[in-house]
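Q: My labmate handed me this sequence with no annotations at all. I'd like to see what the chain might look like in three dimensions before we decide whether it's worth expressing. Could you predict it?
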Amino acid sequence: MTGSPIDFFFDPISPYGYLASTQIEALAARHGRTVDWRPVLLSVTVLQIMGLKPVPLTPLKGEYSRDDKHRLASLLGVPLVEHGLGGAVSPIKSLRLFMALKARDPALAARYARRLCAAHWAESQDIGDVGVLLRVAESVGVAAAEVHDALHDEAVNGALRTAVDDAVALGVFGVPTFRVDDQLIWGVDRLWMLEHWLEAGAWTPPLAGAARRSGLTANALPCPGLPDSMDG
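A: Here is what I predict for the chain of 232 residues:
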């Protein structure tokens, strides 16, 4: 692998973060890059810092987003279901476990994070429930004792707080966000921009080839004036 890793900022409660989680590893591999999975909390960036409502509760934008995420899932060829859990799901416990796993094995943590996002958005599982976390963890080879330790370790909780603070310091506000070289790129609908940067290293045309390879064709690129990335 050549080049610096792609920082992938995610929050498992975001459907757009889930969609990006299904694409980012393959995209990075096409360009000889690895992926550094980094958690962020939309409850901090969007609700507390930006002072915005959750997207589903935002007039007009919330209604649009309900269709938008399913269109994107269809374009990317991945499942996405309405879990009906609303905004009551907290990602805190699941991300504490992520931080504990990342500290000892980043590749395992990435596998866990992919399964976590899929459990929530492809299987309608409540990832705030410890029983669900135990099943997700077991599916990637993590023992129940390690889950229990992570959820009750204050050092792990502190590591998560630091990770979120670091993301904010870098300017991350929405999910998914990609950071490559010195570029910050927000939104699953901007995977084509990430791919273009990895190919060209500059913001110069043409862009159509990168858009096709990232799963969103040139005809599917966002149009000026239309809502784009919905998380934040």
